[in-house]
């Protein structure tokens, strides 16, 4: 049987992390399923547990000048309901899982879980989100695409805890989030897609695209984006096929019980094509 | 007579809503033990050795050595062992139970039992036929020999998992002179008979009682007999109450599902584009044991001409054994597979012949007194013309069809026509079931309905009470209908085959009339009625000839969809359904059957993917096996058209299965219309639609 | 083991329990609250739904360690309220109950929705119930029931 720690404060949580190797559990919506046992028996956790969902120090949403700061413990539903939340993130949250899951799942948990099918991730990538992690004696702020290494893996050290995420509060001329699931609600994504763009005087001044569930990590290719920025919208539209082709090698989905690799790849490119064509 | 169709409050709603209703997992006994199943980890082979850890005191292994009777589950075809002895035929086949008080210890014991196998090469392909049937109407063979033009297509259908929200579960109890089985089930007497055979005891030795059942859809028809036998053997050995509840994954991986099928249809076409004959071949995958598969095959074969009268038909079918989890009963019982194929086929013939499908369908639509596929007769009035007109008006079918058929329009509309034979196939009722019902008038003038039919959500407790209350002119509160207990109720047959209202309800109505004649205030009176086959119904079980069913229910469905051309996802945009179930005993209850049934049918046709790879079910939880949510359903327009059946209570025929059958072909036809490609298999998933758009034919 | 304090159907509870234990198991096995059902064990079906601090949550994926100082209401507790009476009547009138196994969860979902949004549109109802699977009804009769409850319970939410 594993031991459980329920710290009273955030500080105490960091203290515990400094001394022990712990599995951090926030809402538990992913970990309780991953460690599921048969009914009536304790879940099959291997490491001792640190419960953090009740730590109110990490439960806040605040707006600063150009950024929105969301504490790691804020539930998905609260973020969905918040006035400050970026419209694209709202879009993703509104079709994520179900109300019952959103009521306890937290943003910190969704990021730490690092599932390529996690629905907030493509949006957080496309919005250039930064992750603040703290340990007892250090603090670092890391762009999300450096924070997540691959499926289920992050650079979070054993003594660290995600404390908040910082989302630049930008408006975009074009923004889209699309989730392709097997049904209209309560589904795990086969593909997810998030993109933004800005156009001024017919020149593409910003362009970002991400794909989820099509490889071990969220796909975002800065180099391709940089090559697009500066094009006229006409050029962008006419180079659509070329751009789609350039993404091909980065979209490396698998066949699994939810869909096929061929489908995931083709639909990803369809969505990209449709998106590019929508930019005028 | 009052209007029987007028809806009343369901008698069991209140206890279900408040959480007071006790389902099997909600029931416990003081000295109750738990059981868990050790399953085979190979698809085919022989058990060479089983190595056990040290078994702590109070924990017991129960296996085939403990069986006093036959090591077969008594189902229609007896080939499935209760516990594997030596031979293993599918991954997950039960070998033994571990029984004890603490579930963690049981789990630990199971994890430390090591079974060694001599592994054999399994078969997953439809190669080994274990049942073969064929029949012919008219001179199909001769016509096909001479036919100049033939149109032929192959169709296939996938698994469907029931996903009753309450998983399988039973408790066995040891009483002084008998073993009781209580739990979630459709057929108390199937279980009783199976357990008697397993224990080698007489009918006094076994008692079976249904508990409130959280959905079944056929999944609790024959499967519970397997676990009931296992539990009964365990209780007989240990002499304490034992609970066996499946968790969801165990339920999805190792219980029965709808048979996957391959269907080949060929039409002989004459000079004037007439369908001279149809040849149908059906292949069903039974999984590792035959069980009910032969009867499922019969129903599929009999449905091979759908709602159409074709004078010459040649039908053959096989049940193939594979080393996969056994398949079994599921709402529709073989008909949904065939009805999908024939509805697609009639459209595909029309397209090949470049004629309007509606014209072709109307030309062959069955009429009263037409001869059925098995040489029986549609004796009763058929009102399909009115039903079709109704649904076409409701849905604005013609206008939408022409609009949606334009190039580049990704909306689609599809219409299915179908029927369902009510009750057991052929002479089942007369020869095998011989249903008996009783009514007992208590001294206080309350009346108890004594039947073995279970309410699994379909509302039978309400409708049966309604029938008796109406005939005897009593308030509904004065009618008693408890969950059946085989010590108290006669064998009125299983709760299957859309037979409960038509057959059992019919007998209940007759008994109520008899009781009315004999009514004496303040006296206890019991009356009974036994089923008698109408004289005009004749069936040859060997040759599959004659009247396969005493009556037929009919349906017309229209489904509208929108296909996303970038993601190939299908969105339902409209559903319309019209049924002839004779007479609805309670409109709202039948509406519940209609709405729930058609959504199960539509999702069978478009959403529900279950695959078996190397004997392993891939979608083994409800995260991966997709059933519709409230966001996937749409408002459904439903109409029932009265067409009373002379021998049914108030004219009622079967309703439960009918409502599932038209959903798959209607949605498949709608998708076909939306993407202008020929659909030949279900489920029509986005992945399949992508393939069709890229490589398919129209 | 840890000490967990919470309010259960209006009663203050202090218990020693393994914080990794599922709330569902504790409710069913320690408190006999068997109106809370287990359908899937992984947060997909909603049969185990309860209210935690007035919002719907699936108790099969809630570890006890997360409910300290929270208020839990199960169907057994909720069925003693006026709001329940209104929802109950609406479910009866619209024929929203078939096998009943999903029903307590559906009622909890309805309450959670109406509590947040007393006059939901049909689409909002569909979304509000989207985490509760029903295999019997096709959902529409349940959706109508929530609409009816919203009308008849005017002022209650």
3D structure, described in words:
Chain A is α+β, with helices and mostly antiparallel strands. Chain A has twelve helices and 13 strands. In chain A, strands 4-5-10-6-7 form a five-stranded antiparallel beta sheet. In chain A, strand 4 (61-63) and strand 5 (67-71) form a beta hairpin. Chain A is globular and about 60 Å long. The N and C termini of chain A lie far apart (60 Å). By secondary structure, chain B is of the alpha+beta class. Chain B has three domains: 30-121 and 171-254, Alpha-Beta Complex (Aldehyde Oxidoreductase, domain 3); 261-425 and 546-695, Aldehyde Oxidoreductase, domain 4 (2-Layer Sandwich); 428-493 and 503-530, Aldehyde Oxidoreductase, domain 4, CATH 3.30.365. Chain B is 28% helix and 25% strand. Chain B contains 18 helices and 28 strands. In chain B, the strands form seven sheets. A seven-stranded mixed beta sheet of chain B has the order 3-5-1-12-9-10-11, with helices on both faces. A six-stranded mixed beta sheet of chain B has the order 7-15-14-13-8-28, with helices on both faces. In chain B, a hairpin with a 2-residue loop joins strand 25 (612-613) and strand 26 (616-617). In chain B, helix 8 (335-353) packs across helix 9 and helix 15 crosses helix 17. The mean pLDDT of chain B is 97. With 157 residues, chain C is an alpha+beta fold. Chain C has six helices and five strands, in the order E-E-H-E-E-E-H-H-H-H-H. Chain C has helices spanning 23-30, 75-78, 82-94, 103-116, 122-128, 140-152; strands at 2-8, 11-17, 49-52, 55-58, 71-73. In chain C, helix 3 (82-94) packs across helix 6. The longest helix of chain C is centred in the C-terminal third of the chain and has 14 residues, at 103-116. Chains B and C meet through helix 1 and helix 15 of B and helix 3, helix 4, helix 5 and helix 6 of C.
